[in-house]
């Protein structure tokens, strides 16, 4: 019998929400360890022509790339679940938060973090600019969460684990104690989501940076440019 499969790597921020929601609705997915940084097979490149992760292959042969589409497809497998929101407009807001986090938030965080990892060209000005741009977009979430526990409606939806997964590499690397003090509602929301059983089933330990990553050592720098 064919299984549903998700090609991704351990802790991949774009896969955490997909796997958390699959766990919540009891939808079986086998994780196939696939890491573009390590190398990809010819077979995988036929499934995902850009050589990115995640990719979903359903037991019925459905192939999906793009983490948002995969997450929406998986969440819709249980028609009784409220993961896609109680109303149609809630559903639209879920997609809106997912898109903001998967594009602007991830891009800005990556522009801050990748140079510090030494996998994108480093300049102090570039990192400072990316840090400011990250704060600007996270402020949108902070303001929204001032008087809310969840991103959409009054209940947990796909938007929460999906967006928390995306920002996990920010919290682990640069959203340190001092930074978090400026975003208390966003941080409290992240702590709430990452402590949920569905999230813990995928990521048992949540790493919160004590101090942000510093500049890379000269030997770590390279010309590789991540495109997100
Ligand atoms: N548009 C894709 C982007 C996927 C993506 O960039 N995934 C990252 C891992 S989180 C990746 O595969 N990076 C490797 C690369 O860009 O070569 C999506 O939303 O799923």
TrEMBL record:
Keywords: Elongation factor, Protein biosynthesis
Domain of life: Eukaryota
InterPro entries xrefs: EF-GSTs, Glutathione-S-Trfase_C-like, Glutathione-S-Trfase_C_sf, Glutathione_S-Trfase, Glutathione_S-Trfase_N, GST_C, Thioredoxin-like_sf
Annotated GST N-terminal domain residues: 2-82
Single annotated GO MF: translation elongation factor activity
GO cellular component: cytoplasm; nucleus
Residue ranges occupied by any GST C-terminal domain in the UniProt entry: 87-219
Family: Belongs to the GST superfamily.
PANTHER family per UniProt: ELONGATION FACTOR 1-GAMMA
Identification of the protein by name: Elongation factor 1 gamma
